[in-house]
Amino acid sequence: MQYIKQFIAKNERTSLAIKNVFYSFFLKGITILISFLLVPLTIDYLNVNDYGIWLTISSILTWINFFDIGLANGLRNKLTEAIAHNDIKLAKSYTSTTFALLFIIMTVFFIIFMITNYFLQWDKILNLGIEKRELIGNMVLIVFAFFCLQFVFKTVGVILISVQKPAYNDLILVFGNIISLLIIFILTKTVPASLPYVAYVFAASPAIVYIIAYFFIFFGKYKYLRPSYSFVDFKYTSSLINLGVKFFIIQMAVCIVIYTSTNILLVQLFGSKSVTVYNVAFKYFNSISMAYMIILTPFWSAATDAYAKNDHAWIRKSIKKLIYIFLLTILLTLVMIVFSEQFYKLWVGDKVKIPLSLSIMVAVYTSLFNWSNTFIYFINGIGKIQLQLYITVGVAIVYIPCAIFLGHRYGISGVVFTTIISLVPTSIFMPIQCKKIFSNKASGIWIK
Hints:
Layout: H1 2-10, H2 12-45, H3 48-61, H4 71-84, H5 88-117, H6 122-125, H7 133-153, H8 155-162, H9 166-190, H10 195-218, H11 237-270, H12 272-308, H13 312-338, H14 340-348, H15 356-382, H16 386-410, H17 412-438
Helix pairs in contact: 1-2, 2-9, 2-12, 3-10, 3-11, 3-12, 4-5, 4-8, 4-11, 4-12, 5-7, 7-10, 8-9, 9-10, 11-12, 11-16, 11-17, 12-13, 12-15, 13-15, 15-17, 16-17
């Protein structure tokens, strides 16, 4: 503890990052606990198959979070830079312009989806009976509307992260999860099983909390960043999007093609129950990633600040310390594998059976995810993402055919093994890029 205090005292940026990590650990711990409570509660209320249907629908609709053309991540870096140079007027223009652009994008996409949804055959997409087509179609449209609201107002969280206050964003997420838990619990006691009700609760809770947070944040401590029509200036669109478009393509490749398609492939190849089996294992081991992301999150904006001030030494020291923490997560993951069967039985009972081989593969996947993100967060913070862009697009191109082939050959485990393969390139090349950049030896693609 004395060492930590001495370390904090040496550097204000490090002090802020560590304080946010401590606060976020507490808040994210609550979030993880609630997410674990929600799984058996929701499965008991619905059933294994309907829960799998909801997981698949939600994973499909999360694509809207990445259709901001990378504006959120562009804002995250640009706003941090503006504040680092004490240019408050520019910072307010960035926030105002981003909100205006996101509102326009949201409106356009909702209109397009409302028309398209009429023609979508959700029964075939989700491998269901035709009798559920109209029910699912109507439900998805309402859920999509809430996702659109969240799409705009979650920018509040991006701004909090940009001012290096990610713990505040975690607090917002905690409130959203608490509301979901309470309402789902009430539904189990008062209303017969209803997939639409569950979907509305999970979609509406975060959207409503972010809207409330908007007023607390921008009419309180951070009113100097409050979006204003008079500060909307579309000339900043290019500076936000130039970097943001690269983030957008990376997000599309990783989150839509790989993450979303995994659930779709599972439901098409093996039915909705397989989605539940995979996601129970994923949620168990992903708790390690969630905890590790708490530690990493402050370092994105801190890296932006450090790089703008040419403080490479701080970045190198931070990466070294994070690698030690990563090694601890590996040990914890091994322990979780050993006790996984007992935990599943305690957590979800006998309703869901998860093979040990699947648990091991999900554990390997989350470990590779944590390792690559240790370096990606710093690379994203300084905006040198051209190499990452090429890698993720290349992986996305081969992912689906590879997953289908291995899925037919090895079942659920084959699809999950493909997700492991997809992380190997970034796990190798991102550490190399970091070493080159922060030792001033990078050139060509390594520094773009």
